């Protein structure tokens, strides 16, 4: 079964709706300046008691930025240079790669840190994430083959294109932020439902 991560959750109503429609994970942005940013206090309000069996992923630049967010996983972009400090952080880890071209595949091949999954997102010159743009999925196929790791496919996914993405890449998990929003940080519950329904329908066609 393909897992679904709904990212950029900023309020309890959206978290509950996503969980009710069958999301496996909820993403919370702890990167300042994102329109989807949530403070540690806000994270506590929304996610201290998550819906049963739904994992919480906090999105950070460096692993230690997650120290005040009691999440299950961290999704991080850069390892800190202070490995001692980073090791004190006990979250399970998802390493994010922003897919630009074949040079990103070299980075992925060289990456050997222990992580639960690689999240592959679109490279954007101004935005770290949540850009709403797809990338060349052939790169994701190659990244999956080279790394041998579980893949979370992100970047511009929508209820309309997610089945094509699954067919092309066959990732373990898909991630969406802007494709299920009415405005940045505000989820459109009908789109969340349609996205998860499209994933479950694709899964059902495989069996
Ligand atoms: O979503 C953000 O605002 C964001 C800002 C800074 C770093 C990461 C961010 N999002 C991380 C995600 O995992 C998004 O879900 C991913 O980039 C896909 O976004 P979208 O293309 O909008 O579906």
UniProtKB/TrEMBL annotation:
Entry EC number(s): 5.3.1.24
Pathway: Amino-acid biosynthesis; L-tryptophan biosynthesis; L-tryptophan from chorismate: step 3/5
UniProt GO MF annotations: phosphoribosylanthranilate isomerase activity
Signal peptide: none
Coiled coil: none
GO BP, sorted A to Z: L-tryptophan biosynthetic process
Reactions catalysed according to its record: N-(5-phospho-beta-D-ribosyl)anthranilate = 1-(2-carboxyphenylamino)-1-deoxy-D-ribulose 5-phosphate
Annotated keywords: Amino-acid biosynthesis, Aromatic amino acid biosynthesis, Isomerase, Tryptophan biosynthesis
HAMAP family noted in UniProt: PRAI
Family the entry assigns: Belongs to the TrpF family.
Protein name: N-(5'-phosphoribosyl)anthranilate isomerase
Organism expressing this protein natively: Capsulimonas corticalis
């Amino acid at each position: 079964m393909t897992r679904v991560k709904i990212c950029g959750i900023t309020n309890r109503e959206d978290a509950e709706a996503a969980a009710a429609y069958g999301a496996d994970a909820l993403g919370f942005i702890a990167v300042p300046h994102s329109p989807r940013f949530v403070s540690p206090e806000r994270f506590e309000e929304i996610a201290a008691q998550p819906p049963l069996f739904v994992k919480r992923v906090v999105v950070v630049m460096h692993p230690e930025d997650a120290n005040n967010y009691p999440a299950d996983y961290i999704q991080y972009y850069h390892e800190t240079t202070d490995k001692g400090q980073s090791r004190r952080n006990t979250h399970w880890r998802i390493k994010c790669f922003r897919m630009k071209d074949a040079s990103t595949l070299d980075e992925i091949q060289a990456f050997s840190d222990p992580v639960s999954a690689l999240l592959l997102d679109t490279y954007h010159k101004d935005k770290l994430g949540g850009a709403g743009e797809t990338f060349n999925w052939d790169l994701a196929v190659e990244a999956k083959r080279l790394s041998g790791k579980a893949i979370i496919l992100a970047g511009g996914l929508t209820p309309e294109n997610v089945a094509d993405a699954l067919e092309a890449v066959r990732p373990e998990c898909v991630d969406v932020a802007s494709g299920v929003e009415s405005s940045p940080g505000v989820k459109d519950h009908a789109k969340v439902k349609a996205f998860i329904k499209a994933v479950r329908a694709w899964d059902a066609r495989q069996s």
